[in-house]
Specification:
globular, 152 residues, 5-stranded mixed beta sheet, 19% helix, 9 strands
């Protein structure tokens, strides 16, 4: 086991980082954590494995995590590779989840801000005495989000 490991951030590569940051601020209450990043040079290229790498972006404080909580790092490379679109059943990272008070209202807010629906809002009882209402939606760039609300 790695000693003193601590979860720090999740990186999201955006087609338009400024627009995507606004979405996460307006819809989910994320807060910018300056400074804005503008990285380039041999160290970035060497560390990322991307020749002539240049990226820009910022970290967002996630709602409900406090000042020392993990962040969502939204970056945009100056040269992008196209990839396959996100899917809930594709190997690798699939989605990020947010607890919300009202899943239907949160879904509507995502859709009103340029997001899209991926599945229906459903209620499940994963174990006796607990119920979760949840759905998958996509942000304006197609990244999957899970919106969830638990009750007893």
């Amino acid at each position: 086991m790695i000693a003193n490991a601590k979860y720090v951030h999740t990186n999201l590569i955006a087609r338009d980082w400024r627009s995507l940051v606004r979405f996460y601020e307006e819809v989910l209450g994320c807060v910018r954590l300056p400074p804005e990043r503008d990285y380039a040079g041999d160290d970035l290229a060497s560390g990322s494995g991307v020749p002539n790498a240049h990226l820009q972006g910022i970290h967002l404080r996630l709602p409900g995590c406090g000042a020392d909580g993990p962040t969502l790092e939204v970056f945009q490379y100056s040269e992008m590779r196209e990839g396959v679109g996100p899917a809930a059943n594709r190997p690798g990272f699939a989605h990020i989840a947010f607890a919300v008070g009202d899943v239907v209202a949160a879904r509507d807010e995502v859709l009103a801000h340029g997001g899209s629906s991926v599945g229906d809002v459903v209620c499940m009882s994963p174990d006796p005495g607990h119920q979760v209402t949840w759905c998958y939606v996509a942000d304006p760039e197609g990244n999957l989000l899970e919106l969830q609300s638990w009750s007893s």
